[in-house]
Design goal:
445 residues, mainly beta, Immunoglobulin-like, 9-stranded mixed β-sheet, 5-stranded mixed β-sheet, 50% strand, elongated, disordered N terminus
């Protein structure tokens, strides 16, 4: 241990001598801030402050403040803020050469051009300014809004002059960019032109949305007349968008011109109850739709629900019908379908060679015998085979004899699908109402 003592003393002497030597004078560095670009993402972005040399023993304190350029940092405008205005002091510890100014970026969901704000810095102590001014660019990450029509309007035609129909083109949200779009009318069943006898005025517009606006109105003139014509339509389309996307669903609007010259609906003929006799249910019922006549259009189609060929349960079911003329006038009517178990004989589907045995299963192409009564004397009865796929296959006709009975020998259609099927006899009862008789038959290979 003694042998080591001189060395330790020498080393200690060196340390003391070093500490006691002359101290290096502090050098005051300059500071500068570079321009930076940051994404528009919620959160703090640190903007570096650089010293030209390490901070002195006192450290360096630099005061900063932010102020607006095209970006806004205080609430109260028509758009949300882009960043939060702030002031503060950045302290750079002794020996360090960089500090950071925190700036809070705010996502606003608004499509906008890249925007800027500024940082101005002044020294408190320990540094002097070289470039104390920086521009911060916020890169916008938001998608453009969509534009579409808010509704499909309608307007009554009128007898003369012009009426204006107004359409509303709306943005899904505000935009700080210059939003523009073209509007063009396109004929449908209505014809465009410059004056009557056209149905409406062909229209072209260029729409510009003011900053912060989310809607613009478009008006189209409709010409009135006294012509008897149907309710008609035309389209208004949005085209050539700038800084906006076209709404895929509402980019086109349909305008309906309601004719007011023919206001009388068709007349639907009354229809008696349809009586169905069957030993099973639900049963597929074929019936004749009622007829309808319009004073202007003549015969018009009638649609009913449930439609002919639908399955009906035992009991009484209401069938609702309607007919519409070309002017849009609608008439309504209804009738009943009554499915009941036969009290007397239903009739039968049998093998022509064995009339005593009723058939429950048949094969495609097989000849059968159908007997049934209750129809009007001399009336035509339609035979239809409904196969397992629901296809209604024509199976010929039969004429009811003096006693109202039919005796027919139809063939099961060659293309009848395998599965549960039904033979149907459809005709008129003596009182003129429809009479349906049905037998369940399974089609096998």
């Amino acid at each position: 241990m003694r042998g080591l003592l001189p060395a330790v003393l020498v080393f200690g002497a060196l340390l003391v001598g070093s500490a006691a030597g002359p101290a290096r004078a502090d050098v005051t560095p300059g500071f500068f801030i570079n321009d930076v670009t940051v994404p528009e993402v919620d959160g703090i972005q640190n903007v570096p402050v650089f010293l030209t040399s390490p901070a002195p023993s006192t450290g360096a304190a630099i005061f900063y403040t932010t102020f607006d350029g095209t970006a806004t940092g205080l609430p109260g405008g028509i758009f949300p803020i882009d960043y939060v205005q702030s002031t503060g002091v950045v302290f750079i510890p002794p020996g360090q050469a960089v500090g950071y100014i925190p700036v809070q970026i705010v996502t606003d969901g608004i499509d906008e051009y890249d925007e800027t704000f500024f940082i101005q810095a002044t020294p408190e102590f320990g540094a002097f300014p070289i470039d104390p001014f920086a521009q911060v660019t916020i890169v916008d990450l938001d998608q453009p809004p969509t534009v579409g029509f808010s509704e499909n309007p309608s307007i009554t035609e009128g007898d003369s002059g012009t009426q204006s129909v107004v359409l509303h083109a709306v943005l899904s949200r505000k935009s700080e960019k210059d939003v523009e779009v073209d509007v063009q009318t396109v004929d449908g069943t209505a014809t465009g032109g410059t004056a009557s006898p056209a149905d409406y005025a062909t229209t072209t517009r260029h729409l510009i949305f003011d900053h912060g606006a989310t809607s613009r109105d478009v008006s189209v003139n409709v010409f009135g007349d006294t012509n008897i014509e149907p309710t008609e339509t035309f389209q208004v389309k949005l085209l050539n968008p700038q800084n906006v996307l076209l709404d895929p669903v509402h980019r086109n609007a349909t305008v309906t011109i309601v004719n007011d010259d023919d206001v009388t609906p068709p007349v639907i003929a009354a229809k008696a109850t349809v009586n169905v006799l069957a030993t099973f249910a639900p049963v597929t019922v074929l019936y004749l739709s009622p007829t309808a006549v319009d004073a202007v259009d003549g015969p018009v189609a009638v649609t009913c629900s449930p439609k002919s060929g639908s399955a009906f349960p035992f009991g009484t079911s209401l069938v609702s019908c309607q007919a519409q003329d070309r002017s849009g006038n609608v008439a309504y009517s209804s009738f009943f379908v009554v499915v009941q178990f036969p009290v007397l004989t239903l009739g039968a589907v049998t093998n022509p060679g064995n009339l005593d045995t009723k058939l429950a299963a048949v094969s495609p192409g097989q000849r059968v015998r159908v007997t049934a009564g209750g129809f009007a004397e001399g009336s035509e009865v339609t035979l239809t085979f409904i196969d397992g796929a629901g296809a209604e296959l024509d199976d010929g006709t039969a004429i009811a004899g003096p006693d109202g009975r039919i005796d027919a020998r139809p063939k099961i259609p060659d293309d009848a699908a395998i599965g549960a099927g039904q033979m149907t006899a459809h005709g008129l009862a003596p009182d003129g109402s429809e009479l349906v008789r049905a037998w369940a038959l399974t089609v096998r290979d």
